From TrEMBL:
Native source species: Nothobranchius kuhntae
Lineage: Eukaryota, Metazoa, Chordata, Craniata, Vertebrata
Entries under SUPFAM superfamilies matching the protein: Formin homology 2 domain (FH2 domain)
Name of the protein: FH2 domain containing 1
Alphabetized PROSITE patterns for the sequence: FH2 (PS51444)
PANTHER family tied to this protein: FORMIN-J-LIKE, INVERTED FORMIN-2
Domain FH2: 1-193
Coiled coil regions, renumbered to chain: none
Top-rank taxon: Eukaryota
InterPro entries in alphabetical order: FH2_Formin (IPR015425), FH2_Formin_sf (IPR042201)
Amino acid sequence: VKGRTNLWTQGQVQQHFQIDVQEVEELFGHNDCQSDAKAPPTRGGKGRVSFRETKEVSILDPKRGLNVAIFLKQFKRSNQTLVDDIQRGSSESFGAEPLRDLLKLLPEKDEVKKLKAYRGDISKLSLADSFVYLLIQVPSYSLRIESLLLKQEFPAACEAMKHHFGILHSATKELMCCEELHAVLHLVLQAGN
């Protein structure tokens, strides 16, 4: 601001700072696709992992990828083991609620196309993308997950049906044994004739 004292109008700078341009570029610069041999050494040489080594490939929609990653955190098993269980039809490691959640997280058709077209290193895929990539390799994966859910829910559904069938059976017995109902039905029959 002209006319008032501020940082820029106070005269000369008291100190001269040395800027380490190489370090600034290392920390904030955009890495091009160079070979690892040409990469500049990391600061301090203490085995810091460079940006290029931790870069993951993400194909899924970011929100879906995050939701799939959160879903996978509840299992203490590898992606391959989970996909193998789905392929074998083993529902013991899942439970009904996680299977319902997984059905909601299945990829869209365009995401499936992108994942099937991916030809890069599978180990560079993010956790969620890796799981979905392995999952879509399973034939009829959606139908298999629905079958696993049915397998998990079937015993509880059978128990509920047994209860309802018991109620229906006792109601039928009461109707068959009710003399008053029989008399009313005969009366209706005679009135109709």
